């Protein structure tokens, strides 16, 4: 058989299996959410015997019916989330955690768990707009169709969160767990940038998790956690951090350096430029800087062999771009060329990009 014909048959055989991912792909996320809801990773980790946990023991620990739990665990073991190992001389089996299931511990605030993020993204409010993705893509350029989130909820995510404290809490917890993972990496990569800096404003700083980490790492700085009033109402009271309510589109409080993580991607270019101008105005001329923690989408696929880790990080960035389409009105992940455009339009003539070996990197814009 010709090589090209064999390749085509191989691709067709692969496709006929891959299609099922799109038919039932949601089961992966739903089963992981179930494990988090039931605190299965915690039940295994904290089991008194510290041995692999049998189905009978696990069903008591999480108050679940053994027959359903068996099916969920069979699926999650197949997914590599938990392990099932022989015990009692091979006469029975028990479950153990894996590095992946430990990232699903809702009770752990260790800078690794992303469980609160899973619960936020799988909430009914955040799932519903996904089913309208095609309507925004098919919408004429004049934006006559409302974005998916607004079409479902009648308002944007920040207005909905203001009216819905439960959703607002989920957002805050999701952001905080992401911050615990990423901000220590930023601090390590940008240590020099905090030298000689007395005041830092975290724009859209949520409940203050970021500044809590930064003032511990750089105790000479005074932090101002700046966010919408309903978020500031529930912000943490932290030594060295003052909480300030306001609208970042009006102005940003004056400071030596602005920190802005995962905010600019929520907005289209017009709002993004306006916000960057406010950040620029907030810092002193010649020495002021704005630290932007965001993704940079690769312009082109590297021609050379691409590291598996790089490829996986890029996949997360592209998924995040889909999230922006589903959950914000105009937000997007940007390529370096797109960042260059908004930074130049906002009047920043000089910037540099630092890698933190994660989905995001740090763009430092100098006033
Ligand atoms: C995606 S979250 C990022 C939170 C935090 N920077 C982090 O990365 O964990 C965006 C934040 O922007 C805040 N925000 C949205 N609109 C705002 C506005 N007009 N003024 C101030 N903050 C705003 C939201 O309340 C939210 O905390």
Automatic annotation (TrEMBL):
UniProt-annotated catalytic positions: 265 (proton acceptor)
This protein's record includes keyword Transit peptide: no
One Pfam family it belongs to: Methyltransf_2
InterPro entries: COMT-like, COMT_C, COMT_dimerisation, SAM-dependent_MTases_sf, WH-like_DNA-bd_sf, WH_DNA-bd_sf
Domain O-methyltransferase dimerisation: 20-105
Gene Ontology MF: a single term: O-methyltransferase activity
PANTHER family assigned: O-METHYLTRANSFERASE
Protein name in the entry: O-methyltransferase domain-containing protein
């Amino acid at each position: 058989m010709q090589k090209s014909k064999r390749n085509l048959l191989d691709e067709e055989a692969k496709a006929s299996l891959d299609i099922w991912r799109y038919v039932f792909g949601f089961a992966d996320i739903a089963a992981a959410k179930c494990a988090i809801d039931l605190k299965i990773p915690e039940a295994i980790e904290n089991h008194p015997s510290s041995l692999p946990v049998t189905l009978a023991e696990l069903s008591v620990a999480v108050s679940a019916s053994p027959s359903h739990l068996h099916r969920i665990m069979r699926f999650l073991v197949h997914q590599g989330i938990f392990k099932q190992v022989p015990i009692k001389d091979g006469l029975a089996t028990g479950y153990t955690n894996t590095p992946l299931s430990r990232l699903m511990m809702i009770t752990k605030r260790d800078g690794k768990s992303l469980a609160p993020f899973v619960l936020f993204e799988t909430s009914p409010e955040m799932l519903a707009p996904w089913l309208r993705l095609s309507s925004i893509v098919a919408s004429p350029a004049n934006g006559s169709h409302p974005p998916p989130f607004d079409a479902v909820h009648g308002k944007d995510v920040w207005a909905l969160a203001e009216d819905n404290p439960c959703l607002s809490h989920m957002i805050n917890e999701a952001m905080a767990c992401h911050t615990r993972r990423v901000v220590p990496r930023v601090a390590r990569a940008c240590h020099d940038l905090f030298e000689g800096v007395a005041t830092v404003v975290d724009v859209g700083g949520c409940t203050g998790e970021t500044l809590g980490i930064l003032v511990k790492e750089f105790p000479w700085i005074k932090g101002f956690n700046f966010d919408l009033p309903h978020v500031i109402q529930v912000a943490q009271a932290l030594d060295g951090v003052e909480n300030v309510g306001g609208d970042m589109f009006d102005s940003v409080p004056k400071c030596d350096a602005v920190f802005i993580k995962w905010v600019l991607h929520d907005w289209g270019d017009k709002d993004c430029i306006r916000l960057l101008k406010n950040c620029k105005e907030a810092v002193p001329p010649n020495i002021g800087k704005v630290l932007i923690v965001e993704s940079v989408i690769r312009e082109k696929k590297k021609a050379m062999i691409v590291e598996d880790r790089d490829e996986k990080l890029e996949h997360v960035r592209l998924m995040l771009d889909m999230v922006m389409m589903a959950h914000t009105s105009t937000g997007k992940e940007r390529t370096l060329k797109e960042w260059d455009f908004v930074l130049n339009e906002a009047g920043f003539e000089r910037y540099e990009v630092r890698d933190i070996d994660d989905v995001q990197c740090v763009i430092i814009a100098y006033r």
